[in-house]
UniProtKB/TrEMBL annotation:
<dbReference type="InterPro" id="IPR050155">
    <property type="entry name" value="HAD-like_hydrolase_sf"/>
</dbReference>
<dbReference type="Pfam" id="PF00702">
    <property type="entry name" value="Hydrolase"/>
</dbReference>
<protein>
    <recommendedName>
        <fullName>HAD family hydrolase</fullName>
    </recommendedName>
</protein>
Length: 226
């Protein structure tokens, strides 16, 4: 155990692979991004396999593109940022993208129990806020409680969570996410960590250091009450 398990005043959630089934929105946008890069003459060749971007989820976009297309210029990475975000926002406006089973009901139950709810994501601000808004979850989260690396230009999720805790005066929280970066962000800030073991984006041992693991999002309620 790295964090102490006690009933928290707040929960901080990762977004992709934790609340939101990222691939339902990401993959169509991913293919559209490479089609446009080719049309602009910025990229040649086939679109890299989907596993490359899915395996890199949880990183900041700068590092994701180094994994997906390490051979191209940084300017192409930045254009890919713009395109991917724009296509995902367009997809959200069309009603694309799906939450994991039980997310909406569980978040409402947590809020009804008086928990303060936050998001800390390595994504870009328009994407993070767009997902929460279009999925109808915005009223459940704290005002100004959606934190993204894109908005605050943080170097790591450790720094992002630290900023969130300090800004909102949170003394005791749980960090909930599906990647090792979420576990690290929680432990480095003295938080109890919950690993979400249902997205399948990361390596099998990635959540070994989490203080607890859940295979369905609803199990979070039982974990808090136990």
């Amino acid at each position: 155990m790295f964090g102490t398990k006690r009933k928290p005043e707040a929960l901080i959630f990762d977004l992709d692979g934790t609340l939101f089934q990222t691939e339902t929105l990401l993959l169509p946008a991913y293919h559209a991004t490479f089609a446009q890069l080719r049309a602009e003459g910025r990229y040649t060749g086939e679109t890299p396999p989907e596993r490359h971007i899915l395996g890199a989820l949880g990183m900041v976009l700068k590092h994701i593109w180094h994994e997906v297309m390490p051979e191209v210029d940084e300017s192409v990475h930045r254009r890919a940022d713009e395109l991917l975000t724009a296509y995902q926002i367009e997809g959200l406006a069309r009603g694309e993208g799906t939450l994991y089973d039980g997310v909406a009901g569980t978040l409402k139950a947590l809020r009804d129990r008086g928990m303060r709810l936050f998001v800390a994501s390595n994504g870009l601000e328009p994407y993070v806020k767009g997902v929460i808004r279009t999925q109808g979850l915005e009223p459940l989260f704290e005002t100004e409680g959606l934190y993204s690396a894109g908005q605050y230009q943080t170097r790591s999720k450790v720094d992002l969570v630290k900023r969130l805790l300090e800004t909102h005066g949170v003394a005791d929280a749980w960090m909930v996410g599906d990647r090792s970066s979420d576990v690290e962000a929680g432990h480095c800030n003295g938080l109890f960590t919950v690993g979400c073991d249902y997205a399948g984006f990361g390596k099998s041992a990635e959540l070994d250091k989490a203080d607890a693991r859940i295979s369905r999002f609803e199990q979070l309620l039982d974990l808090i009450e136990s």
